[in-house]
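not sure who needs this but someone in the group chat was asking about Ionic transporter y4hA from Lacisediminihabitans changchengi so here u go. i didnt clean anything up, its just raw.
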Amino acid sequence: MKTVQRVSPVGVPLLAFVLLIATWHRTLPLAIVIIVAVVLIGAVLAAVHHAEVVAHRVGEPFGSIVLAVAVTVIEVGLIITLMISGGHGTETLARDTAFAAVMITCNGIVGLSLLLGSVRHGLPRFNPEGTGAAVAVVATLVTITLVLPRFTTGASGGRFTGSQLAFVAIAAVAIYAVFITTQTRRHRDFFLPVNATGKPISDDEHATPPSTRTTVISGILLAVSLLSVVGLGHAVSPSIEAGVAAVGIPSSFVGVVIAFIVLLPEGISASRAALRDRMQTSLNLAYGSAIASIGLTIPAIAVASIWLDGELVLGLGPVQIVLLVLTMLVGTLTVIPGRATRLTGFVHIIILAAFVFLAISP
């Protein structure tokens, strides 16, 4: 990771916060919506930049966890604000966003990282033990939270009963906690970048960590950025929903848009790591974000559903389940050799393209 000499950007989080105050609970004309959308994307990028500063200070694999949690906070905030606003399709918004996040991370970010790394460095290596464990956790979390409600009989229409939802939420948090413990303590070496012989190395061995002052300032700006992203997302949500409806795209595509927005910086960070021959860091970011998106988002939405109006539909449809099975199968075969190739990267990208196309034209 590049040496951080100063806290930057500072202006974007502050601008986003001022704009949030100026637009709170107001009907916005199209020109202002465009400005808010641009600042929103800038605030997302700024949030992950400052998360990277904090992550750089704590090192790998803790850094990837900081980034994943920051992105998840943005995701949960946007989902809840959109669900509060109501409208058609909000009952499936959590499902659509969480599943889109899994597809984008496990296919888009993983595929792009594998492709960039293999083009730049030939056959970049990663640790199949740590990465394989992450894939197994993703598969388990997605199955118990998003696949099972389609087959349970306690409630119809892809919904859990109250007790089932409580169990799944607790189980998801427990799995996430055990994974984090494994990643940071018991088997930390499995998640460190490796050299050509497969030996773990420090991801920051040639970089100077930021100072305590820089880290604290970035932490504050990270909090400001996250708050601004959630608030501005609420401001532009009516326009996003109206735009999707105007072009005849299913309302579920709103979840895909949210996932792409919040995961854009994660994709940039993973791509940079792949180009620096830190493939393990790229995979930590990708699968870590997928795990956080399910292990933290679904329990948070489950708790929020206690006071939110309307139903919470989590069960995936048949096409989504097929794409999930394909993603997990290809992901497993990708991890086994412990080496990245252009072919596997391209295959993952094609799966993501199929997901996006079918989300637009089911």
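also Residues 17 and 227 are 8 Å apart (CA to CA). if thats useful
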